[in-house]
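Re: the pair you flagged

First of the two:
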Amino acid sequence: MPWSSLFQPVERLSAEQGLEDWYARLLTRLGDTPQPFELALVGGLLAATPGLAFLAGYQAALRMLWPAAPWTAGALCVTENRSTRPADMNTRIDGLQITGRKDFVTAAECADWLLVAAREEDEGQAPRLALGVVRQGAPGVRIEPLPALPLMPDIGHARLHLEQAHGERLAGDGWGDYVKPFRTLEDVHVLTAVVAWQFGVGRDCAWPETLLLRLQALLAGCAEVARQAPDAPTTHLLLAGLFAEQQALADELKVAFAGGPAHWAELWQRDKGLLRIAEAARSKRLEKARRIVAGR
């Protein structure tokens, strides 16, 4: 991991030409086949907004989930009717064809490939998921853009419609091997990217050295947790510690942002809630991990 990136001059990347262009320019800066953690870290440093940092972390997590993914941007499509439970899904995969609808696809506007959770069990059996891959623009694949959200309005969301879309089925169980571990992969890589964004802003704005050193330490912790198995109880315990450390810095960060250019403070005030996404799910995983480690 080239940690020297943290201390080099930063020329931030904005997204006037769209997210697809932003991501392509980020990869150009990184060179050939960067490691996922590097993608999250450097993507966060170069991001002009917290939302773009989120996008870098999200793409890094997808590459951890599917190491053979193309180097274009992708998206994971799970949610139907505000639920991610397999029993609540109606999207189905039959052979190499996928039919259904996904209601909340992050950054769909720039996604070249889409990982789609779809049921494949026979009638009368318990719900069982597979993960299929479809390409945006292919026959039977339609993206319906949704209105921008107050949180990270620069990162679009969309509804995905599939009508006998030709796809590739990835090996393994859709839930246990993909959907479930992605929650942890996304948490650690998005946290990495957002903390890197904070560090870059803080370095440019001459924040107190003690705050910058603690942000560095937090990034080092993220690097270690990113190496752990996403389904291990100890990983969830360590990840909870990282989020607790970020939360412990909240008041100091607020003061630091307030003392610098209003632009950065306004962006952080608008988007700081992104670190609370899936907070309830993290809390449940933490409690389960505690019970497992304690042997209960």
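Second of the two:
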Amino acid sequence: LKVAQGDIVVLSDGDVVVANDALAPLVAPFEDPRVGAVSGHPLSTSPRDRMLGYWSHLLTEGIHQIRRARDEAGRFLVCSGYLFAFRRVLVGRVPEDALAEDAVISHHIAGQGYRIGYAPRARVFVKYPATYRDWLRQKVRSAGGHAQDYVRKSSLRTRSAWLEMVNGTRLALRFPRDLREFLWTLLLFAARLHLWLLVFINVRLFRRPLK
């Protein structure tokens, strides 16, 4: 951020593939001066015929629907760390101990009165963890970012165990195509409870850095 020269900063992860045509739709919403940041659209490349791959498709599709609905209604949404952009002038720094810089930046920009937009055509392809241990390590850190005070104390907060249960249960139960996927969905509910318990212990209780 200290050396960035352009008006718009685009952030992505090092282990994803950004579509060749993603940047144009990602920056287009900035023509509206009220837009301060724009989220891209993550798509899972993991196989749906395996449990963790199925979980990744359920979660990415579910979050896509939520972001699109919030964008159309003009409501706050959190950018995806896999691909997002923001006006450089609105973000001076990100706390070094922040576990979810996408959430911190989104809340910081919205707190200044700017809209967060969504660009469904700005695609970024993601291969998700293939083992439960790796899945937990990734998700505890990212979800833990929403339990830190930077985000938890925001009036715009959109993620917690309770909010996930209220807003995501019906959507998740509509996603399975067959009995096997329905059983995997039930196991995902249990995994998310495990995840949020670990977030509470590691982030809220012991305040571990999770480097």
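Residues 179-205 form the longest helix (27 residues).

-B.
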